């Protein structure tokens, strides 16, 4: 396996001023992620994992430090370049799916694909996430799990370098959560996409290639998992 | 189709009511703009062409008597290209119904139709001979007279039979009115009959002479100079009036009508577009805050700021384009209809209904500008939404104390539900301000029709009920010794008579001048009442002159200033008079003097040329055929004509009320729907707590009532301003609208505004019914 890191996070810090107190959302964080890895960033709420994901996804800028993705220092980007980066390189999956309510499943995927150059076949992606039958339904006609699968298809179809997932199972029941996790794992394996999942659910760590644990804006542990277990077997 | 556009279309589909209400406003705005502008331009073009085709005179001179041979002399005046003399006099026409009084103006026509004021007819008319007549079209149509019919005018006490050989239009009588005192045309009561010169001269006793000259000049800029020169050269022939093109009655009314059209074409659409803009901006700003999370997602998946902004701006543009297209189509259709209506009021045979593409382009530019501005104002919040933050639920709006709470004694007195109402209204100050401005405008528009009604009826009834109390005004064919009053008294059984003199003069102050009549009446007149601009009763002085407000404005004179009166009567000098008072007069513009003083200075001793009479008798029949009486105007007849005209006015007033109402409706409808959408959760919570739908409906109704009341309050000065500019635009020599603004004006406008607001609120009622409070409370995304 090629061991040059795809993402390098170096001494990343993000401070907020809340009244008189300075909140250190991220405090000197460094790690690396390799191409095709399934990475779990674990930590309780308020540990800084969302801030980290936002910066990696080009939605936010750090106070200090840098993030290098495929040899490009995205933390130096201006607004236009960040938008282009989000457009071409990153796929997002959110906790609450965040689909456009008045577009069908397929149209939601098209919405994302329309603005990208090198994309995947939409119907094939919908087939992969198991939604071929339901692609003409509106979000309100779909279950939570189905909506999240649309969201995953939307992220994947852009053919991005990496897929960032923010608590993708947070709003789902246990068995649906497992299904979503295995779908993400399959996409990671079959399409060789780097997948980063942030969650407070420690059990997700068992299925990841690399686990980064966070607390109060700092990394407490980085663990490589040489032998991840299939998502179907994790329990919480 | 781009998926973002698809999203937009579905958004529009799910809020059809809002979309349609704004589209309707823009459609109305543009259809008014297009139809009024197009009609005005078409009329102007047609009239210019018509005037040139028929060689309408630039100067029309009325005089006592001028020999044919003097015409050569007039032709030699520099700038004059054509001169034509004619005979013109008014006589009664014999009709089958003895009760009916019809007057005609007999006008002589040179052989071959002449070089000036040629008649226009699509049919060929044979050369006219001694006993033939050509009728003016309006009159022929109103009385159903056709070629071959015989008409019988009384001329100098004798009946003459004339055979109608043709029907034609004249550019001189595009708007057919007997004189300035007639308020509106009555083509079945007054017509023009063209006869040969020989016939006219012989029956009128004017062999070899004329009493009118028609003059055309090289260039319109020379009219003034030529008129001055005429005054010197032919003064001895007894000039009564020199009427320049701009003072020509038919032309003046037409010009005034077109000026009104221009004003309406500019003002109403802009007012409507402002309201449309306000609604678009409110709707969009609500839409953006509603879509906060969706906007965040769009940005997260790589949509650029401007792409997202444009997505929302497109909403404004789709409204603009739909409204423009509908408005332009409707405007073009209406332009045709309007031109036809105008063609009924004004006899313009060469009226073409052309499309003027420039107005379509103007409409599109105007609408796009308004939509872009209001769209940006409403949607600019898009730029501030950060993708990372938008994923988190929005913080509750920080509750703030509002200023009214500080007024403790007031606030404590309010019930809980009123407190909530007031807080809600003030929660978005900008929207509140916009709504109030928009509704104030709707209210102000509503004040105009009531005012127009009050002032037009007031204009008439004050003039003839208060200022002038006679029943008849009699005109004599020539000035006569005042002893004639005794002859007349013999004819009238019971009634009061007063002598009067009325002569046209040119009144000037420096280079400012106008043509107007001076009326001389006894100082102790029982018929005339004068009031100055402060509405104080004033008595006619023994020396000096009273002039009307309109004249004072045109001449730029104040009480105490002196004006020059140029005398057309042969052998009389120009005189200066002190303006003793500026008086109110709503119909006509003329000056008043003591009859004795007038005879000493301007006319001749002991001579009069008319009477004012108060009598319940039907003098019209009785006096019309009396020798030396040339006109009998009955105030009662004028009232009847006026009341007919009022029906037409009522229709346009109702239409205007509807316009104001549509604006008010759209504003309240949209803001209520937005308010319900925005507060779904809050309203659902109230439902859970046990409020019923009615109570929630009333809470929203109270909010709207408060906003509408404030708007009405602020709309009062706006309405006064609008009424003032309206009155200003309509004031002319012929009439000026009195400032009759009463509480009624505002009460009616207010009630109509409230009524439309209530209808809008009821239309939004469905949305309250549809709040499923369990769903509303569960979902975070409203």
The low-pLDDT segments of chain B are: none
Q: What characteristic shape of chain A results from the CA principal axes?
A: globular
Strand percent estimate of chain A: 25-35%
Oligomeric category? heterodimer
Largest interface: A-B, 33 and 27 residues
User: What overall form of chain B do the CA principal axes indicate?
Assistant: elongated
- What is the overall number of helices of chain B? 24
CATH architecture label of the domain at 37-61 and 90-225 in chain A: 3-Layer(aba) Sandwich
Q: Considering DSSP H and I runs of 4 or more, what fraction of the residues of chain A is helical?
A: 25-40%
Q: How many beta-strand elements of chain A?
A: 10
Distance between the termini of chain B: 27 Å
**CATH homologous superfamily name of the domain at 37-61 and 90-225 in chain A?**
P-loop containing nucleotide triphosphate hydrolases
Q: Largest beta sheet of chain A: what is the strand line-up?
A: 6-7-8-3-9-10
Number of strands of chain B: 23
Largest sheet of chain A: 6 strands, mixed
Measured on Cα atoms, how large is the radius of gyration of chain A? 17 Å
Describe the protein in words.
The complex is a heterodimer of chains A (236) and B (782). Chain A is an alpha/beta fold. Chain A has helices at residues 49-56, 79-89, 105-113, 122-128, 144-157, 174-190, and strands at 5-18, 21-34, 38-42, 64-69, 72-73, 90-93, 162-166, 194-199, 210-215, 218-224. Chain A has a domain at 37-61 and 90-225: P-loop containing nucleotide triphosphate hydrolases (Rossmann fold). In chain A, the strands form two sheets. A six-stranded mixed sheet of chain A has the order 6-7-8-3-9-10, sandwiched between helices. In chain A, a hairpin with a 2-residue loop joins strand 9 and strand 10 (218-224). Chain A is globular. With 782 residues, chain B is an alpha+beta fold. Chain B has 24 helices and 23 strands. In chain B, the strands form four sheets. In chain B, strands 13, 14, 15, 18, 19, 20, 21, 22 and 23 form a nine-stranded mixed sheet that branches. In chain B, helix 2 packs antiparallel against helix 10, helix 7 (249-290) runs antiparallel to helix 15 and helix 20 (635-678) packs parallel to helix 23 (743-769). The interface between A and B is medium-sized, with 33 and 27 residues.
